[in-house]
Amino acid sequence: MMEASIYISLIGLVIITYAWLIPKSSARKMNSKPLKQLEDTIDSFAASMDEENQMMINFIKEIQHDMTQKEKLAQLQISSLEQQLHYLQSSIQDLKTRLDAGMAERQNTIPASPVHSVLEPGREEISPEIQAVEQKLRIKERYTDIFNLYDDGKSIEYIAKKLGMNKGEVMLIIQLSKQEDPTRV
């Protein structure tokens, strides 16, 4: 009998051991499934982050390229504007020279007596010919709308657009008036 009880004990022990091992191995299998899903999710997240980072890097490279192109374009525009400024300055100087020559020529053609009457302090009578010449020579009086807008603080672009003139023409008129009247600066 004792042998039977040993066999029964051994069989019970094997069953208990087997019962104890089976739930652990199935629990390991059950735990490995969510773990595998978590790992897959993390891998997928990392892959999408890498893809988004690569897209961001490409976007930044495009922006840098665009900024480089815009900088080159701005440099070309600055160079062009500097050339235009140089041209306008030489044109202003040329016009000033011509204006001075024209004024000298007109002073030579005006009769001497009316000029002397203007220059004499006791005489207030000015001949109509001199008045006409002075009126033509005063730029500020000829272009009052330009100077009204300019005195109001409007930009040269605005003045040119408003009056239907070229910006260069407006700039030239303002420069000539500054040379005519040094207190205008």
Spell out the helices and strands N to C.
HHHHHHH
Cα-atom radius of gyration: 48 Å
Structural class: mainly alpha
DSSP strand count: 0
Main sheet summary: none
Query: How far apart are the termini?
Result: 130 Å
Strand content bin: under 5%
Low-confidence stretches: 113-123
Count of discrete alpha- or pi-helical segments spanning 4 or more residues: 7
- Helix percentage range: over 70%
Mean pLDDT: 79
Question: Any idea what the shape is?
Answer: rod-shaped
Detailed description of the structure:
- By secondary structure, the protein is mostly helical.
- The protein has helices at 2-109, 112-119, 128-137, 139-142, 144-151, 156-163, 167-180.
- Helix 5 packs antiparallel against helix 6.
- The model is unreliable at 113-123 (pLDDT under 50).
Summarize the SSE layout with pairings.
Elements (H helix, E strand, L loop, with lengths): L1 H108 L2 H8 L8 H10 L1 H4 L1 H8 L4 H8 L3 H14 L5
Helix pairs in contact: 5-6, 6-7
Descriptive key words:
185 residues, single chain, mainly alpha, rod-shaped, 7 helices
In short:
Helices cover about 85% and strands about 0% of the residues. The protein is mainly alpha-helical and about 180 residues long.
